[in-house]
Amino acid sequence: MKIAFSTNGNTLESLLDTRFGRCSRFLILDTETNHYEILENTQNLNAVQGAGIQSAQTVLETGAQALITGHCGPKAFKVLHAAGIAIYLADNRPIDELAKALAAGTLAELTDADVEGHW
Amino acid sequence: MQIAIASGKGGTGKTSLAVSLFLANKDRARLLDCDVEEPNCHLFLATRFVSRTSVEKRIPLLNPDLCTHCGKCVEACQFNALAEAGKAGILVFEELCHSCGGCTFVCPTGALHETPLKMGAITRALVAGKAELITGALAIGHTETPSLILAVKKTRPDPEVAFTLIDAPPGTACAFAAAVEHTDFVLLVAEETPFGLHDLKLAIKALQKMEIPFAVVLNRMRPDFSSVLEFCKEKNYPLWLQIPESRAIAETYARGGTLLDAMPELEESLRILLDQCAEAMQCNPKN
């Protein structure tokens, strides 16, 4: 299964970036092979509007089935939810730790946006 | 001629000046309330309602039966108003749409077509029989401020009405720019505070870039401060009217009265103010 993480770093030890729409980059982890790839999010970092929507688009194009991030606004939630991607919220902990927490079932799935747009 | 009443800082007295300027010149002026996010000129005027028209924007409407999920519309949208959510198909975020029509243009199957969405309204009312007040009001939840301001400014005056006064929104961002753009002259209302001076400078910078002539009206003039006065003198900016800091004006305003109610002797100055704008415009090399 592929998991997307919003992050500032480039490795599995990097911390989660709690922003979603305007995070620096995404780390996409394949839990079966433990391989990962990095996707820059520069374009959305500087977007005038709709950064969450485009970040959601980026995540779903990677084929990820789950997303772990800090917060998720209503528009990003709508896109991710419609695409069937499960969203989990977490603090800025290391990515590998969060991957284990997800596998252990200790992260709760988000059922609606947890913040307003432009929070 | 179009004259905008603007300021950098909010609360310096734009509406107070605009309303009284309108009343003092109601035989030759009309007033456009272009502070469309919170229009309030009508609160100070005894108006007779004439008409209200909706202002719409065009947004894309999707026919899912024709959509092939090709994603061309998502790619074309410069405003991130469209997203392709996998098997759920195309999602439209109408509040982000700028009505450019790009998505419907690139759609190869005709699955998108433009449909109107109400974003606000323009109300026409009359003051003292024939002087016209036009009010733009943005619908709740909408953010298309500049588009609505431009729609209000497009309303045509009676040919006999020489002056169109525009009560502009505060700030120096898009809404301000939309209100002052293509006007002949701007009256900048400044107040005698550090914040007032700071934002006056920002507004002047914006107007100079837009090449719109202006003059300053100093409101709430105080004997113990003269920073705006000194600034205008130093830069040689025209300062055409000074309104004193006065409890009587504040009390009248709080009861829904105007500057003219509190200081009827201002009427003459407010008529001269418009004449000065007209003169300045004639002297402007652009004309």
How are the strands of the biggest sheet of chain B laid out side by side? 3-6-7-2-8-1-9-10-11
Secondary-structure element string of chain B: EHEEHEEHEEHEHEHEHEHHH
Q: In one word, what is the shape of chain A? A: globular
Report helical residue fraction of chain A. 25-40%
CATH 2nd-level architecture of the largest domain in chain B: 3-Layer(aba) Sandwich
Low-pLDDT runs of 5+ residues of chain B are: none
CATH topology of the domain at 14-23 and 54-119 in chain A: Nucleotidyltransferase, domain 5
- Oligomer category: heterodimer
Fraction of residues in β-strands of chain A: 15-25%
> What is the CATH topology assignment of the largest domain in chain B?
Rossmann fold
CATH class of the domain at 14-23 and 54-119 in chain A: Alpha Beta
Strand order of the largest sheet of chain A: 3-2-1-4-5
The total count of strands of chain B amounts to 11
Approximately how much beta-strand content do the residues of chain B carry?
25-35%
The major β-sheet of chain B equals: 9 strands, mixed
Keywords:
heterodimer; A: 119 residues; alpha/beta; Nucleotidyltransferase, domain 5; 5-stranded mixed beta sheet; 4 helices; 5 strands; 21% strand; globular; B: 287 residues; Rossmann fold; Alpha-Beta Plaits; 2 domains; 9-stranded mixed beta sheet; two-stranded antiparallel sheet; 10 helices
Q: Topology, pairings included?
A:
The complex is a heterodimer of chains A (119) and B (287).
Chain A (H helix, E strand, L loop, with lengths): L1 E6 L17 E6 L5 E5 L1 H4 L5 H11 L4 E4 L4 H9 L3 E4 L5 H9 L16
Parallel strand pairs in A: 1-4, 4-5
Antiparallel strand pairs in A: 1-2, 2-3
Chain B lengths: L1 E5 L7 H11 L4 E5 L13 E16 L9 H5 L5 E3 L5 E3 L9 H5 L5 E16 L3 E8 L6 H10 L8 E5 L6 H7 L4 E7 L2 H17 L3 E8 L5 H9 L3 E6 L2 H8 L4 H4 L4 H17 L4
Parallel strand pairs in B: 1-8, 1-9, 2-7, 2-8, 9-10, 10-11
Antiparallel strand pairs in B: 3-6, 4-5, 6-7
Helix pairs in contact in B: 4-5
